Amino acid sequence: MATRDTPRAMQAHRRYVIEFSGAMAAYILVLMAAVPFVTERVDSPWRVPVGLLPLVPIGLMAWVLVRHYGRVDEMNRRAIVESMAFAFIVSAPIVITLGFLESAGLEMSIWWAWVAMGGAWALAACVLRFRYR
Fold first, then answer.
1. Distance between CA 127 and CA 115 in Å, rounded?
2. Residue 126 sits in which domain range?
């Protein structure tokens, strides 16, 4: 039986999925409320504070990940660090490219950097989960 399959590891993974899903749901809800407010109420003094509200659930996601990292064994910690390293390696050139294209006058959305980073992190986490079984 692999380390990942121990009851303690399975419980930690289940807890992480539940906590991270809750934080992600909170992020989506806050984002759905904040984006229309920020784009429609251009003259509101609340525009910046409301625009920063999504940082609260993002901080919650970071806290959930740190807690999960503390609950798992060394092999799982290695997989977490490797998946984050892969996400950085993939997303860094994308962010740089978006910056250059924007400097060249093209309208580029920085949101694609987050999509690339999150997607690369999720892909690497799935691949490493099977690799280390």
1. 18
2. 73-133
**Nearest-angstrom CA–CA distance, 118 and 96:** 16
Query: Is residue 129 a contact partner of residue 4, using CB atoms and an 8 Å limit?
Result: yes
pLDDT tens profile 83-108: 999 999 988 998 898 889 889 988 87
Check: CB of residue 95 under 8 Å from CB of residue 115: no
Q: Number of folded domains in the chain? A: 2
* Higher local confidence (pLDDT), 129 or 67: 67
Residues in the chain: 133
Residues in Cβ contact with 133 at an 8 Å cutoff, skipping those fewer than 6 apart: 2, 4, 5
| Domain boundary pick from 72, 87, 120 | 72
- Contact criterion met (CB below 8 Å) for 4 and 79: no
What sign for the dihedral angle of Cα 31, 33, 37, 40?
A: positive
Looking at the structure, do residues 12 and 57 belong to the same domain, yes or no?
yes
For residues 44 and 78, state if they share a domain: no
Mean pLDDT taken over the chain: 88
For the segment 39-54, what is each residue's pLDDT rounded down to a tens digit? 898 888 999 999 999 9
